[in-house]
Design brief:
This protein has about 300 residues and is α/β, with parallel strands linked by helices. The chain is built from nine helices and eight strands. It has helices spanning about 5-15, 85-95, 115-130, 130-135, 145-160, 200-205, 215-220, 245-260, 280-295; strands at about 35-40, 50-55, 60-70, 100, 135-145, 180-185, 235-240, 265-270. The protein has an eight-stranded mixed β-sheet with strand order 1-2-4-3-5-6-7-8, with helices on both faces. Helix 2 (about 85-95) packs parallel to helix 9. The longest helix is centred in the middle third of the chain and has 15 residues, at about 115-130. The protein is globular, with a radius of gyration of 19 Å. The N and C termini lie far apart (about 50 Å). The relative contact order is 0.12.
Length: about 300
């Protein structure tokens, strides 16, 4: 094979997101089909890409779990969190669900609500192209971790409010969620101990300290959007989380209870902010059972 031919094959593999270019594909069951690095906003921004993992030999329209990574709104990518949640993501796909992991702009690139614009745009793309990818647009769930848990809660709770500032022009607002899984996501920015620190992640997110701009903090806090029409939630938090206090999830659950929204809060004993303690049989079974009940 000539060098030019070899280069072309490698280039095509990269463009089409073949498995060998994806660092977490081995976490998924053998035969998982990957559609990688799909641009969801018709531009060239590296943060406007998503991956879709399909079960082997899938037939019919598949329910979809949308996966939003964490990283303080300023780091990581669409492969993050999958690495320590290998058994969970594998079981999601082996149970017949497709999984789409999305990237979004960091707070250091654009302040809130840029992250909401991106997440809603990505979800809208999946909804609008559901037939193309064999997805059931009426069976969407969203799952996020830490900052991604915040964004998953935000898109899930604000969805029925149709807030124009959370959508790019021309973005479909028709999608809805059957379920939200929130792993240790912030729910109220004013609860952070760094709410008066200009360099804290939550301050970088909104472009000001939450204490100085409680109006901006409110707009960027999931609890602001809780109402009786919200989808059911499964909320999971580590007992010894020293980055996002368990009080954040306790508060979200309390607000959901007040509104009469079905939810369950699981506090994982001795667990830190993230890691394999959230990929145990006990937690994983809760997640899979919840998704099965809401998406099947």
């Amino acid at each position: 094979m000539h060098k030019a031919q070899l280069f072309l094959l490698l280039l095509l593999a990269t463009m089409h997101g073949f498995g060998q270019t994806n660092p977490v594909i081995d976490a998924f069951p053998k035969g998982t089909v990957l559609q990688g690095n799909i641009p969801y906003n018709n531009d060239n921004l590296p943060k406007h890409l998503l991956d879709i993992y399909f079960p082997a030999n899938a037939k019919g329209k598949l329910p979809l779990v949308i996966f939003i990574h964490g990283g303080g709104w300023l780091s990581n990518d669409k492969y993050a969190d999958i690495g320590y949640m290998k058994k969970t993501v594998a079981e999601i796909v082996s149970n017949g669900f497709a999984l789409a992991s999305i990237d979004y702009r960091f707070s250091t690139q654009a302040v809130f609500p840029a992250q909401m614009l991106d997440c809603n745009r990505a979800i809208s793309f999946l909804y609008d192209n559901a037939d193309k990818y064999g997805l059931d647009k009426n069976r969407f769930a969203v799952m996020g971790f830490s900052a991604g848990g915040h964004l998953a809660s935000m898109v899930g709770l604000s969805n029925n409010n149709s807030i124009a500032a959370f959508f790019m022009p021309g973005t479909s607002k028709s999608f809805q969620f059957k379920a939200v899984v929130d792993f240790y996501g912030p729910s109220e920015l004013l609860l952070f101990p760094g709410n008066n620190d200009e360099k804290s992640p939550e301050s970088l997110l909104i472009g000001a300290t939450p204490l100085a701009r409680p109006d901006l903090a409110k707009v960027a806090s999931p609890v602001t959007y809780v109402d009786k029409n919200d989808p059911p939630f499964l909320i999971i938090h580590g007992e010894k989380d020293d980055l996002v206090s368990p009080k954040q999830s306790q508060l979200l659950s309390a607000w959901l209870n007040v509104a009469g929204v079905q939810n369950e809060l699981i506090i994982v004993k001795d667990a830190p902010h993230f890691g394999v303690m959230f990929d145990t049989d006990e937690v994983r079974n809760k997640v899979i059972d919840f998704l099965k009940k809401k998406l099947n």
